[in-house]
């Protein structure tokens, strides 16, 4: 496992990189203000194992084809293609393996939060429906 502490221009952060069972994992951790040695040791002893387990569980439960679905190829207008190429050139390039892994993990966390929000919304909707039904039955009984 390799931990790199760096200043990203706004905050101090740590980049965690490790290999487990033949897979490469990378994950960022933001300290905020400049960490002292004690802060780094606290992070290593308290938070590191939970973070590592969470990342491994998250990346193992999904495969890459579910995250990055294949796009259907259609014939593209040449001018549209030129615009897309120019736009892609202007974007910053993700050059390191760690950046690609962090992007993948970020997308997985985003999907997990989205699913949790949807489940919560559906439960709330079901409970509201049950309340409405109960009120309707009470009115029908004449209470």
Question: Can you describe this structure?
Answer:
- This protein is of the alpha+beta class and 143 residues long.
- It has one domain (2-63, 94-141).
- The protein is 61% helix and 17% strand.
- The chain has a 3-stranded antiparallel beta sheet with strand order 1-2-3.
Brief summary:
The protein contains 4 helices and 3 strands.
Features:
flat, 4 helices, 143 residues, 3-stranded antiparallel sheet, alpha+beta
**E-strand count:** 3
- Tell me about the largest β-sheet: 3 strands, antiparallel
Q: Which overall shape is indicated by the principal axes computed on the Cα atoms? A: flat
Mean pLDDT: 82
Percent helix: 55-70%
- What is the radius of gyration computed over CA atoms, rounded to a whole number of angstroms? 23 Å
Question: Secondary-structure element sequence?
Answer: EEEHHHH
The portion of residues forming beta strands comes to 15-25%
Integer tally of domains: 1
End-to-end span in angstroms? Answer: 67 Å
Spatial order of the strands in the main sheet?
A: 1-2-3
Number of helices: 4
Structural class: alpha+beta
Low-confidence stretches: none
């Amino acid at each position: 496992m390799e931990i790199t502490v760096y200043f990203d221009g706004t905050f101090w952060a740590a980049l965690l990189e490790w290999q487990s069972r033949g897979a490469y994992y990378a994950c960022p951790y933001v300290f905020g203000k400049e960490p002292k040695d004690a802060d780094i040791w606290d992070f290593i002893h308290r938070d590191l194992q939970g973070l590592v387990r969470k990342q491994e569980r998250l990346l193992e439960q999904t495969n890459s084809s579910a995250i990055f679905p294949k796009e259907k190829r259609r014939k593209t207008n040449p001018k549209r293609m030129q615009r897309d190429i120019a736009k892609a050139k202007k974007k910053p390039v993700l050059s390191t393996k760690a950046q690609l892994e962090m992007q993948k993990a970020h997308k997985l966390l985003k999907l997990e939060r989205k699913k949790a929000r949807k489940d919560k919304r559906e439960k709330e909707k079901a409970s509201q429906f049950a309340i409405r039904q109960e009120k309707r039955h009470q009115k029908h009984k004449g209470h």
